[in-house]
What does this fold into?
Amino acid sequence: MQTTRFRSRSARALADMHYGPNMTPMVDVVMVILVFFMASAAILGPEWFVPTRLPRESARAADESNPPLRVALGLRADDAGSRVTLDGREVGGLADAEAALRGVTQGRETGNVVILISADARVAYEDVVRLHALCLRLGFTKVGLTE
Amino acid sequence: MVLIVFYLIVGNLAAQRELPMPLPRSDAGATSSERGVVIGVRRDDIGGLRVTLDDQDIPVADLAGRLRAALPELDVGEQTRAVSLRADRTLAYGDLLPVVQACREAGLSSLHLVAAKEER
It folds into this structure.
């Protein structure tokens, strides 16, 4: 009968029945490496950034047949937060800026608009980034920072 | 085994070499796993500013020169390597202006403003 023959073997005989290298430690190591990579990927992650341009005076658009619309956005520090000006005209806070920007660029394809953001020295950096993010969200890719 | 995992993770975190700094929040942006050259601007203990280029403290006046020196590897034509600006959210724009101008002087045409992702 099968079982008695199996049980009749000694422990040593059973141990000698393993063939080839023992796989268990290798699986352990692979698991550790997997955990390490998962942890580092989750902790570091890709960086989130706002891409901006740095326009220079000499860099004027060469395409005269379809000149891009240039919008100058300014930020002014105020007690109630930052005030946005569009082409010199005061527009209000960030929420109003979105409406004003949409109005000015109506009909224009978003790739053909150049927006230059300038701000007072006392404006919080975060507000500048928020305004920039607003422009990006509306689809404008050519947004730059100037003084 | 657990100790090895622990050391690997802690070593990775330590290798970030940066103090936690509040980044400006943004709801729009892009992601990239390439950090490129990192310009850090953060507050000093005494209330001044510390500007670091790839984790080396440098005075702002030198920034343009150092960036220009690093330009050949940045390959400025289409700027294949990213230059990131990690600045404290609470800084005033006036503090960052010299840094941005230094970048412009060095010939950079674009910059990555590192931000913290915020859902709208």
